[in-house]
Amino acid sequence: MWEYCRLNGAPDQCRWLMGQDMICGFVLNGCQSDIDANRHLVDAHGSEEQTVVCQWEGCKRTLKKGSLRDHYSSVHCKLGNRCKGCGMKGSRRKAHPCVPKGDA
Ligand SMILES: [Zn+2]
Ligand SMILES: [Zn+2]
Ligand SMILES: [Zn+2]
Fold first, then answer.
1. From start to end of the chain, where are the E strands?
2. Ligand 2 centre and the CA of 60: distance in Å?
3. What is the pLDDT along the chain (104 residues), one digit of tens a residue?
4. According to the lineage, what is the superkingdom (predicted)?
5. How many whole angstroms from 3 Cα to the centroid of ligand 1?
């Protein structure tokens, strides 16, 4: 069984650049899952374009709209999953000994 968790080094705030020297500052402490983070991403930083440039401080990667969500929540917000059995953390839910096959 898996549960959402914040991985090591997860930032307290959204560091999406809003202007010259201004970052978004949205408090990410309350975000435990990529769903929470993506809700903020879409609400606050959503775009109509199909290709978007990630404005996270120091990033500037160009991504397809769909991959930006994954990128944002896992790379920047560092939200991932934790195995309830052994405590293993990762950005993906992967098969390992305490997760029965098919339940990964
Ligand atoms: Zn933000
Ligand atoms: Zn980025
Ligand atoms: Zn495990």
1. 2-6, 51-53, 62-64, 79-83, 89-90
2. 6
3. 889 999 999 999 999 999 888 999 999 998 889 999 999 999 999 989 999 999 999 999 999 998 999 999 999 999 999 999 899 999 888 888 886 666 55
4. Eukaryota
5. 24
